[in-house]
Amino acid sequence: RDNTFVIPYHTPPIKMKLAISALLVGSAAAFSAPTMIFSGGKAKAKAAPKKVSTSSPAADAWANTVPSQALPFAEAPGTLDGSMLGDAGFDPLGFSTIDVGPWFLGEDFDGPRGLQWYREAELIHGRIAQLAWLGFIAPGLFGTLPGNEWTGVDAYSYTNPLEALGKVPGAALLQIFLFMSFLEFRRINIIKEEGANYMPGDLRIGQGEGRWNPFGLNYTPEEYEEKRFQELNHCRTAMVAIFALWAQCLASGESVVDQIGASFVAPEYYAKAGYFLPEGI
Question: What angle do CA 104, 107, 110 make, to 5 degrees?
Fold first, then answer.
């Protein structure tokens, strides 16, 4: 049967409007944005889906979805096929479908792109988050640095990092900024030298020829992959943890260590007889 939709020449105005609306809705549906695919109920056995190819890499990724380990009720874009270390198919916003790279080195630079560049960002942010977590905890546990007349006697005596940020001298913040800049320029130079062979997160520290290895690390290939996976998990955990620490300090105005210490002390009202009983009983 011919399913071609034809509008009669003498269609009444109301029917003409409905026909035009149907055509517009059908056209708009062709350009709908890709979303995560959800499924419920029992999974039905089915043959492997045929790979679909389109003119857009992002559309290809969503057209060839794979089961998500992180979200069993959903599917992940085809770019997360499990081949990368730590890939659990978690990408509800579709970042992995966007081809990005070190744009600051020019469009013609042959370097890490796509998932490799996202992994670079994940490792760098995760390492910073681990150091930040240590900075939130250490002053309360081990004490702070001494001050002097130039910096102020109490300049470094604040255990709440959010409060300490506005108390330390500007020169101290400048030192931190310069050190961070040095590490960033060094990282960029390594990316430029390695090009497409660059391994995400590689700062030339650790085992290997021509690397700074102060602890004499010498893992087997299997052990090395396990250590890489452990670092990745620590980075992800630290990024979540540092957000929680920041939010808690912002809400309470106290350091995390002070709050943890107070949680192990029984409050004064707990010892009062009849506190949990109605008055007069």
Answer: 95
Angle at 165 between CA 162 and CA 170, to 5 degrees: 175
pLDDT by residue (tens digit) across 188-244? 999 999 998 999 999 999 988 889 999 999 999 999 999 999 999 999 999 999 999
| Residues sharing a CB contact under 8 Å with residue 75, sequence separation 6 or more, in sequence order | 36, 37, 39, 65, 66, 67, 68, 89
> Which residues are registered as beta bridge partners of 212?
205
- Cβ–Cβ under 8 Å, residues 96 and 122: no
C-alpha closest to that of 129 among 261, 276, 234? 234
d(CA 214, CA 206): 8
pTM recorded for the entire structure: 0.72
Compute, in degrees rounded to 10, the torsion defined by CA atoms 199, 200, 203, 208. Answer: -30
